[in-house]
């Protein structure tokens, strides 16, 4: 309960900050975007992981306020980078299931993008398959609403959820983010290279891009490349970085 009331207090935004993790394309050798990841600097506990407080925020409904802060702050930051001409094509923001199903979502995203004055296609929203189970018709309607704004959509942790192929072909999404569980053992596994290759083929057939998450070693990157997945994110390239360090990363990448 202590954490919950602290989270309630923090939800205005004062104790939160965003870190950004680069996504790169190995083939083109360039940064294609960055994922915004929230961090909570608790005055007493120090850094609290989102793995701990996002589930709590979902349960208590505080996720709406926290998600609003993350989206506004990410778009503001992107607007600033665009104004300063930094080489960052897009920023992605995670949406949890409850945010995705909130009736206010589409209108809110539209107003945040407009207020920030960013081109909508430079914002990406990352959704998990779990957000879209249940009422598929409703999910497709929301996805179409988001797509009408012009934002890009990706499925996070792809391969761990419940997307059937019948659903997937109806989703107006841009990218499948291959879950890090398939990357972790890809060098030694007898099955995981084939799984990754199958996801890449599937994505190509459906007109989606792919990116692999959790890439930590050069060997993993090489294996992914063999499976024609050239977009990667992970500690091999960089940890999620505070703003100033992320800007340094961008400065060094041009
Ligand atoms: O960055 P880290 O690995 O600690 O993140 C842990 C989990 O928290 C991940 O599943 C990530 O998607 C989630 N997460 C991080 N930032 C946000 C956010 O701003 N909104 C939501 N909904 N989830 C986030
Ligand atoms: O659930 P989601 O994919 O949004 O989680 C993203 C989180 O994964 C990031 O917040 C980050 O802390 C974590 N992460 C990023 N790169 C790596 C990596 O190379 N290895 C591991 N184990 N975790 C990573
Ligand atoms: Mn994510
Ligand atoms: Na993920």
From TrEMBL:
Coiled coil: none annotated. It comes from the Bacteria. Residues 1-254 form the EAL domain. This is EAL domain-containing protein. The chain holds residues 429 to 682 of 685 of the full protein.
